[in-house]
């Protein structure tokens, strides 16, 4: 009888000997030939192939020469003077995207036959392709442009009139299709069927007149449509949101993460001259593979809202909010908070804040001797792909840091009731709107002290005694922990508008104004102090997190996110 405590070691990986352009390499069994060539430093061009999708082998751009060991009379591979198998080369080209490596296989990626095949494929693809490069959004990251220069002919032999296909096709709410540019690689068709589970796209007609379209009566409107723009090797599928906005070679790329839900998809932020123009998915097999949802991708335009709070505001004697200097805002906020005891103060934080900001929130609560601290939960409908039901990106971080206890939102009802009854006289609201918790404007305006930190005006900021303008996710550095317990890093892509500041700096200066003690002056120091207090983060730093993150919770516990007081009250109302 086997011992259940013993673990069975995984079987050893079988390595196969493969010759690539005359050099022998070893690759694990099951490796695609096209991937083996890349690993050997021999890039094979491709259009239809994508490592996350099936391989139809329909573009023929990855044609190579291939051979297998020459077998002797004894049915054993013949060997040469070097002891390696003698390759029996197949007299016709083979596609490298739909075949796995085999023992003794030979590959020629740059032979005269392979070069001629690529030139022929490029010539056929460009026969009917329009000369849209000056106005095409794909210019600068177009595989057709790149491969035509590297592998194509320097002139065209085509004299006939090009086949004209539909242009500017409204394929869905976020996608515009230009069928003339489509090279029928079928990446988008396979993505919608295999990844998005929404078989909405397909090809119609035949030959030179074959076009991409949505199935009759269907709209290409699932929550993952914009991934097809990322994987389209030409400019056939374009984003309505980004279309004609900016040339990609002008964009500064910043690696970051999406903060629209608890998944924390890895992203690349494209920005120029203090403006964010797009964010696209960045591959991380432990988080989001190579995809992200449309909701998260487009959830950044509020950063450039004309209503952004750009200066500290102070409630005047005439009850209006007027801009003041930061020093006066901190001094006033500290003076108001000192007038009340700890049990008369509540702190409402947000799980959209970074770990560093939540850590400074905990320090602020300690400075105020306030024990009534909670975080607002935020939920929504999830799917089976990437979108999480937890719409907060850092619920796990708030729980790990002990902000609000194990059940986020469990004390919100107590805070709301305390404000209504007058038991609580001062509230520090960080990145949330208390009106969403059932407190109307009249109740909020009666608070003697309401310090609100936000990036956009809301009912809470309009009723606040002191307003502190913070930074958006693309305007700051920091870390978050996703729903699977992975610690990941936000990076600064664009500056904050006006006099708005990083949230952790605002909290630090507020603590200094309250206590008079020295603070932390670099975010790396905040992370270091936090890692000294939290065992799961010990030995880490912002730089050690890396671009792909670090697992800090081995198995994230699934906790039910409680409803907010407003949701509870709404649910109790008769229908």
Write down the CATH topology of the largest domain: Rossmann fold
What is the approximate shape? elongated
Strand elements, count = 24
Looking at the overall shape, the CATH architecture of the largest domain is 3-Layer(aba) Sandwich
Q: Can you tell me the number of structural domains?
A: 3
Describe the biggest sheet?
7 strands, mixed
- Low-confidence segments, given as residue ranges, are 558-562, 564-575
- Give the strand order, joined by hyphens, for the main sheet: 16-15-21-20-19-17-18
Query: Structural class, from secondary structure content?
Result: alpha+beta
- Radius of gyration using CA atoms only: 29 Å
The average pLDDT is 91
* Number of H- or I-type helical stretches: 16
Q: Can you identify the CATH class of the largest domain?
A: Alpha Beta
Helix content: 10-25%
**What's the N-to-C terminus distance?**
61 Å
How much of the polypeptide forms β-strand, as a percent range? 15-25%
User: What is the assembly state of the chains in this entry?
Assistant: single chain
Which features does this protein show?
575 residues; alpha+beta; Ubiquitin-like (UB roll); Alpha-Beta Plaits; Rossmann fold; 3 domains; seven-stranded mixed beta sheet; six-stranded mixed beta sheet; 24 strands
Architecture overview:
The protein folds into 3 domains: 15-120, Ubiquitin-like (UB roll) (Roll), CATH 3.10.20.740; 137-147 and 162-244, Alpha-Beta Plaits (2-Layer Sandwich); 313-570, Rossmann fold, CATH 3.40.50. The longest helix is centred in the first third of the chain and has 16 residues, at 112-127. Residues 558-562 and 564-575 have low confidence and may be disordered. It has 16 helices and 24 strands. α7 (326-338) packs across α13 (503-515). It is elongated and about 95 Å long. It is of the alpha+beta class and 575 residues long.
